[in-house]
Write a structure and sequence with these properties.
The chain is mostly helical. It contains eight helices and no strands. Helix 2 packs antiparallel against helix 4.
Length: 202
């Protein structure tokens, strides 16, 4: 997302803009939860995208509003509230047109190349479409991408170290042939550090 142009900065300096956008997106998310409740009693997943079938074409329009369960909608709700509020603040005049465009293009792409054994539902395509909004492949965008990538890799490295350490101690205190309390935890930690460096370099 191009977050450094003058229009975006001016939009975010007005607190009312982001608050109004948040309320609008919250209303949409509440509608999605209502649809999920209705789906407990009606087979709404039949209106999802069924790749390369004539009946599946109707799912291009309805799939973003249908979710497979509470966990699925919960994760999408958080993303929609954050990204949707930012997106609506940035592109208030064109937001409806752009969202329709994302739904149609993303839905048709899913219908065209999606796995045929599944019925595809959920607003994930809209979320990824919003994330990709404004991407032009310019040098500035690639620079921001690399900066964000390195930052996320740096944040993930302590997670890798901590998880490897906990797992190593789990194995070390377990009754497993070949594991030794004083030897194997350091190997796991060393492996985690190398994994972190590998993430940053790749």
């Amino acid at each position: 997302i191009n977050i450094c142009n003058k229009k975006v900065i001016m939009a975010f300096t007005r607190t009312g803009n982001i608050w109004q956008s948040f309320k609008t997106v919250l209303f949409i998310v509440l509608i999605l939860w209502l649809i999920l409740i209705i789906g407990l009693f009606l087979p709404l997943e039949n209106f999802g995208i069924k790749p390369r079938t004539v009946h599946g074409l109707i799912g291009i329009l309805f799939a973003p509003f249908i979710h497979s369960g509470i966990e699925h909608l919960l994760t999408n709700s958080i993303s929609l509230l954050i990204l949707g509020s930012i997106f609506l603040t940035m592109e208030r005049k064109l937001s409806i047109f752009l969202v329709i465009q994302i739904i149609l293009i993303g839905g048709f792409g899913t219908w065209l190349i999606g796995r045929s054994e599944y019925t595809h539902v959920g607003a994930s395509g809209v979320i990824y479409g919003i994330l990709a909004m404004g991407w032009r492949g310019s040098a500035m965008h690639w620079h921001r991408y690399e900066t964000a990538y390195l930052l996320l890799a740096g944040l993930a490295t302590p997670l890798v170290v901590s998880v490897h350490t906990v797992v190593s101690f789990d194995f070390a205190i377990a009754i497993v042939a070949g594991w030794h309390t004083t030897i194997f935890p350091p190997y796991f930690v060393a492996g985690a550090i190398y994994s972190g460096f590998a993430m940053v370099l790749v």
